[in-house]
Design goal:
One of its GO terms (cellular component) is NuA4 histone acetyltransferase complex. It holds the Pfam family Tra1_central. By secondary structure, this protein is mostly helical. The chain has two domains: about 70 residues; about 90 residues, no CATH class. It is built from nine helices and no strands. Helix 5 packs antiparallel against helix 6.
């Protein structure tokens, strides 16, 4: 963690990214690792976003976030999901700013994926639907894996007890 700021600076950063990915995968293989990752999760996410903003290679930081979100997004990590709750709004706001600022289609898909794979239960994201709509539209027009993620997100929205949950977001306010 103390060398995270160096990730986007030197040639060895690819090795560091691979090591971090292996650590994240260990959470799936060894459930006890969840408790080890928990105290570092918030800092890892927020520092990655911060360092990416002034790095020569910001993609390395987003790659770390993608690997982290994919590794812990499987629905089994309640401790980590609770750790994510205070970060949701700030994280989605920042990812949407990045999404709106880029003209590169690959980056746009990456930021859309990060928005849709924030590692919490999808039902927790319902108050933040406005931050998910543009990423959802982009996801539904992207590569098959991202389309699948977008459809899963849309399915969760559709299954909510309040069928009008999407109306305030679409701007019409009507069923």
């Amino acid at each position: 963690m103390k060398h995270l700021h160096e990730l986007g600076k030197d040639k060895q950063s690819g090795v560091i990214v691979k090591l971090l990915k292996m650590c994240f995968l260990a959470v799936n293989m060894f459930p006890d690792v969840e408790a080890t990752l928990q105290p570092h999760l918030s800092r890892l996410i927020m520092d990655s976003l911060r360092f990416a903003s002034f790095s020569n290679e910001p993609g390395q930081y987003y790659s770390v976030l993608r690997a982290l979100f994919r590794a812990i997004g499987g629905g089994r990590f309640e401790i980590l999901y609770k750790e994510m709750l205070p970060l949701i709004q700030v994280l989605l706001e920042e990812l949407n700013v990045l999404l709106n600022a880029t003209t590169d289609s690959k980056e746009r898909e990456l930021f859309a994926e990060l928005c849709l794979t924030v590692p919490v239960r999808l039902s927790v994201l319902l108050p933040y639907l406005t931050y998910l709509m543009r990423p959802l539209v982009i996801a539904l027009q992207a590569v098959p894996d991202l389309v699948s993620q977008g459809l899963r997100t849309l399915g969760v929205m559709r299954r909510q007890p309040d069928p009008g949950i999407l109306y305030p977001v679409d701007g019409t306010g009507r069923p």
